[in-house]
Write a structure and sequence with these properties.
Layout lengths: L1 E7 L10 H13 L6 E8 L4 H7 L3 E4 L11 H14 L5 E6 L2 E3 L13 E3 L2 E2 L15 E4 L3 H9 L15 H8 L4 E3 L4 E2 L9 E3 L14 H9 L6
Parallel strand pairs: 1-2, 1-4, 2-3, 6-9, 7-10
Antiparallel strand pairs: 4-8, 5-11, 6-8
Helix pairs in contact: 3-4, 4-5
């Protein structure tokens, strides 16, 4: 299987995010866990440095600070669209999209993935069944042939994401295009996508103060684990 892994979003600077703090976890649990498969990496972020390129060795990348905004003035969505544009013409079987500042607790290859469907990690607690259809926007796994439809769903005029919101409302316009029978939730339970408040990952924002999103850095997560109380 030919796997394309896209890392998108902010890699450094904002809210003290630093790709160097999460790079080894991503290398081990996102990239190198696919033994026996061909894996290529794609990046879309601002201020790409030679150090970042040397570590990840991407097949292709876009420094979004050097390119014009497209489709929307929302920075995060622009990074995603540029990433999709780069991957659309690649010879791939499977697409995985996640972010630079994430630390997964287990390898992605060990997750309950349906390789024939579009995989969301989980439904967002309190905001999926209220009509908004929020889902976790920190991991997407799906067959390559769904990539163009994925992009179309973000750019759908009825999608609030296209009006300046985050990625977590793509479920409804995507379901309209591919049908609910082609969507799979890795975890059928509702979970929180905030830092450290689910069983799958935390987002490493090490300058943040703990609050209702749980631990916001790997150090704080391990402190909570020692107390036997890692999740709220």
């Amino acid at each position: 299987m030919k796997i394309g892994i896209g890392l998108v979003g902010l890699s450094s600077g904002f809210r003290n995010r630093d790709w160097r703090r999460t790079k080894d976890e991503i290398k081990n649990k996102v990239i190198n866990c696919w033994s026996g498969h061909e894996v290529n990496l794609y990046l879309s972020t601002e201020d790409i440095t030679q150090e970042l390129l040397d570590f990840y060795n991407p097949k292709k990348y876009v420094d979004t600070k050097l390119v014009p905004f497209i489709h929307t003035e929302f920075r995060i969505l622009n990074k995603l669209i540029y990433l999709v544009n780069v991957m659309e013409n690649e010879d791939l079987d499977l697409v995985i999209i996640t972010r630079f500042d994430i630390i997964f607790f287990n390898s992605l290859s060990s997750l309950n993935i349906d390789y024939n469907k579009f995989n969301f990690l989980f439904r967002e607690k309190n905001h999926f069944y209220d009509g908004r259809g929020f889902t976790c926007d920190n991991l997407y796994v799906f067959p390559k042939h769904m990539l163009s439809t994925f992009k179309e769903s973000f750019l759908d005029p009825t999608n609030p994401t296209n009006k300046g919101h985050f990625h977590d409302q793509v479920y409804l316009p995507l379901k309209k295009r591919i049908g609910e029978e082609n969507i799979h939730f890795i975890d059928e339970n509702e979970c929180y996508s905030g830092c450290g408040m689910n069983d799958y990952y935390l987002l490493d924002r090490y300058d943040n103060i703990d609050g209702d999103q749980g631990p916001t850095s790997i150090e704080k997560y391990y402190e909570w684990k020692k107390l036997g109380n890692p999740f709220i």
